[in-house]
Specification:
This protein has 3 helices and 4 strands; from the N terminus they run βαββααβ. It is an alpha+beta fold. The chain has a single domain, classed as Dimeric alpha+beta barrel (Alpha-Beta Plaits, 2-Layer Sandwich). The chain has a 4-stranded antiparallel sheet with strand order 2-3-1-4, with helices on one face. The two termini are about 15 Å apart. Belongs to the YciI family.
C-alpha cells in the first residue's frame, strides 16, 4: 500500500462551508468506497482545516497521481481550501480498521 496525507487549511467561518460540505463528504465517501480513503476529518481546534489520508494498492502511485485524484474535491474546486500540503506517509504502526 502507498499512503498520502493531505492537510487542508480553510477558514472555519467561511459561509460557503455549509453549502459545500455535503458535496465534499459525498466525494470522500465515493473515494472510500473505491478503497482510496484511510481516514478523513476536520481538525477540532477551531482553527479550521482537515486531514485526509489516501491509500493506493499500487506501490508505484506517485504524489502527482494522488494530487490529481484529490483535485476533484469540492472543497478544492470551489475554493474553500486556502492552502493544501501533501506528503507521502508511512504508517509504521497501523491501527486503522474497516
Amino acid at each position: 500500500m502507498k499512503y498520502f496525507a493531505f492537510i487542508y487549511d480553510y477558514n472555519p467561518n467561511d459561509p460557503r462551508l455549509a453549502d459545500v460540505r455535503p458535496k465534499h463528504r459525498d466525494f470522500i465517501n465515493d473515494l472510500k468506497a473505491q478503497g482510496h480513503i484511510l481516514g478523513s476529518g476536520p481538525f477540532t481546534d477551531s482553527k479550521g482545516g482537515a486531514l485526509i489520508v489516501t491509500q493506493y494498492e499500487d506501490e508505484n502511485t506517485t504524489v502527482a497521481q494522488a494530487i490529481e485524484l484529490m483535485d476533484g474535491d469540492p472543497f478544492h474546486t470551489e475554493g474553500i481550501v486556502t492552502a493544501r500540503a501533501v506528503r507521502e506517509w508511512n504508517p509504521v504502526i497501523n491501527s486503522f480498521e474497516d
